[in-house]
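ok trying this again, last paste got cut off
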Amino acid sequence: MQAFTTLNGLVVPMDRANVDTDAIIPKQFLKSIKRTGYGPFLFDEWRYEDVGQPEMDCTNRPVRKDFVLNQARYQGAQVMLARENFGCGSSREHAPWAILDYGVSCVIAPSFADIFYNNCFKTGILPIVLSGDEMNILFSETQAQEGYQLHVDLAAQTLTSPKGQVFSFEVDDFRKHCLLNGLDDIALTLEHAEAICDYEKKRNKEAAWLF
């Protein structure tokens, strides 16, 4: 997992509440367990006029021009603004995989569905919770100013707007440590690789019939 430390990112406003994981990445794309390749299908039903299928070439698919991800000013966005209860619905890990594969590594909202929130940290995405009033400020400024960027500093736990306004956010110490160091569950386990190997060797001698 890639570490998250700081980010200067173009912001895209997803101005909808209760965005569920089936909208983020529809069910037909769940056949694969790879973490990559989902970016072109992020918000597939909202983004395109036809129905997407796995491994489909999206280059010439008809797009919905009014959908925010299809607007030229938001191409290359790395930060996403969202409304209440973002990531609700089923617990599919593919939802944060698709967001990260698209290029967004920070999602800011007043609230997240619990499982989606947890999966973001395990994927390398920083989910940030701000108040409704703070979100309204960010939505308003993003929509008013083309090329609007935020500076995200995980160590300091701050967001800084182009005007210099600073927004502070909370994050669990352990999750913060994992993101700063690029540690997913596998990497955390491998930190104890030597101890695990020693235990396996010991068990092999003590209970050889198990091996």
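PB: full thing came through this time. Strands lie at 6-13, 79-81, 106-109, 126-129, 149-153, 158-160, 166-168.
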